[in-house]
Write a structure and sequence with these properties.
The protein has 150 residues and is an all-alpha fold. The chain is built from six helices and no strands. α1 packs across α2, α2 packs antiparallel against α3 and α3 runs antiparallel to α4. The termini are far apart.
């Protein structure tokens, strides 16, 4: 806890808390994986290198996931076989990615990560566009129904 307070003082308590709350709200609001918001925030606002931001993000996500899991245990059914197998596969992939990151310059990694975020953002916008079209269609049908009843 002392380290956390020291870190927040180092980057400014208000900036650190704002960064954390902002990422948390974004994650809760639109369901994006925390790393997508945490890594850029740590690089840009926390002045961490890309590799430090990735490692710090993973620690934050692990602790946050553990806290979230505790809230769900006993409340909903969890497919533990799927969770364990997916976690194992993700751990293998993470180990491979960590190894490969040693051979990729940080600047290139940041650029690739930026491109990846653009692709993900485009995908989310396309999904939301389809949802918006559905809502728009329903609104038009409602207007037509109201016009017919008048």
């Amino acid at each position: 806890m002392t380290w956390l307070i020291g870190h927040l003082i180092g980057i400014g308590i208000s900036l650190g808390l704002t960064e954390g709350i902002g990422v948390g709200v974004l994650t809760g609001l639109v369901g994006v994986g925390g790393g997508f918001a945490i890594v850029p925030a740590l690089v840009l606002l926390g002045n961490l290198s890309m590799s430090e931001a990735v490692a710090t993000s993973l620690a934050i996500i692990a602790l946050n996931s553990g806290a979230g899991l505790l809230g769900y245990i006993g409340q909903v059914s969890i497919d533990w076989q799927l969770a364990v197998s997916f976690t194992f596969a993700a751990a293998v992939g993470s180990s491979i990615g960590t190894y490969l990151s040693k051979f990729i310059p940080a600047e290139r990694l940041q650029k690739w990560f930026g491109y990846f975020l653009i692709v993900v953002a485009t995908f989310v916008l396309i999904q939301n566009r389809q949802a918006f079209e559905k809502v728009k269609f329903q609104a038009v049908n409602l207007q037509q129904s109201i016009a017919k009843s008048n």
